[in-house]
What does this fold into?
Amino acid sequence: MSTWDWQVFCKDTIEGEISPRCFGEGGDITYLDWMISAWGWTLSVALLALVVALLVGSVMGILRTTPSRALVAIGNIWTELFRNIPLLVQVFLWYHVLPALIPPLKDFPSFLLVVFALGFFTSARIAEQVRAGIQSLPKGQRYAGLAMGLTLPQTYRYVLLPMAFRIVIPPLTSESMNIIKNSSVAFAVSIAELTMFAMQAQEETSRGIEVYLAVTALYFVSAFAINRIALFIEQRVRVPGMIGAH
Amino acid sequence: MKKTLLALAAVVATTTAVAQTSDTLKKIKDTGSVTMGVRESSGALSYTLGNGKFVGYHVEICENVLADVQKQLGLAKLDIKYQPVTSQNRIPLVQNGTVDIECGSTTNNATRQKDVAFAVTTFVEEVRIAVKANSGITSIAQLNGKKVATTTGTTSVQTLRRNERATGVNFEEVFGKDHADSFLLLESGRADAFVMDGAILAGNIAKAKNPADFKIVGEVLSVEPIAIMMRKDDPAFKKAVDDSIKNMMKSGQIAKLWTKWFEQPIPPSNTTVGMPANENTRMAWANPNDKPMEDYAKK
It folds into this structure.
């Protein structure tokens, strides 16, 4: 506790010697190299899962607001299924249980399985938010669209969704930041991401404080960057007068 | 408001300073209790039977050590609290005073000796490979292109990395979050081999559904002394623990304990691990020492 040893990041992971430029040379890997590679894995898992979650979640959310009871049921079942199981349990289900039940899944890389698990878990939350956004619009909007001769899909596309998505950008921002943080559960199924790096590096170098501080900083920076990007998007797509507050 | 904050800060600072004293014997004498760090599933070295009961080779050695300490301090009663620890938190918990003596499966190496102290080595571990018996794999060279499982947060990860570098064998590492998980990876076929300390491999195989399906094969990848861990800069406690263990070694009690845990049926399922003490371990009993892993590698 009394001494800091930030040089630990410049250490080579096999021999333990300090590398002059802090990045490994000639095939050697320092802890800094490893941490950055782990950060890359975290971001890949999180961003890919975010894409899956946004696509699937939006579709499910829209389905839940259609007049057709069958489509609403599909959306509801999807949402309730993935909302009621903890994320870590879902990851284990995808990694251990489903490949035993559906053999072709055994050949999938664990990266893909984690993306599905994380993506579907978040899609349930996004479906809920998109549904709430659409249902917060006055009923008249939908009927006016239909009365003008637009089909239901056209009403969604040109009237309802532009407003609904602008309304739910703040909750979607939260979900995007959550996905970065939730990606840490991927360590349990052997993805070489930041949390696994932290656990292993702490064991090997015995400098837990420095390692965990650095990993915390990287998680914070990643989540905050998503936050700022979402804020930028929100300001760019803002239409004055479209939603009450603006 | 500011004054109360300053006063509070001063109190916190002094209390944390007080917590740094490393006189474990005094602490045990004053409180009449001692906290033993134990593992939940480290082979036959230290594991749980459920219901907060912990048993194993190292757990029993520690219980004997603490009985000797109780006699030395002249305490009528000594309350032993069992605190489960993990590979991640065992050293911080010993350093900050939560755990007084850690009796699990901790490797004694030079890096760790900067933070904690080790008793004389009670077991010299050899890192081996467990595979499915019908896989035909007999050495690490045959693992080229295969998936090798090991547990996050253990020294075996680094051993595998060194080996890959040194021998040029290229395999894909999969990490289990704990030993049981890594063994599951081998069992379910997600990994072709599980690399870990021989005792943990043997313990997990003994508890598997079909122990005959697995084999421990291959050359020794790393030799590691496993020892009981305690706080650094506390010579009185270290002497007490070392003396107690050395007595057990001299009297042959430690060999008997080994036989009890590694060569005879053990709870909960009364299966036998079936691993006699290797040459290095016997030498460590004959010549008690607390040399770190690096000294063994030089041989």
Notes: The domain at 126-223 of chain B is CATH 3.40.190.10 (D-Maltodextrin-Binding Protein; domain 2). Chain B touches chain A at residues 87-88, 91-92, 111-112, 114-115, 152-155, 157-158, 161-162, 165, 173-177, 181, 184-185, 188-190 (CB under 8 Å).
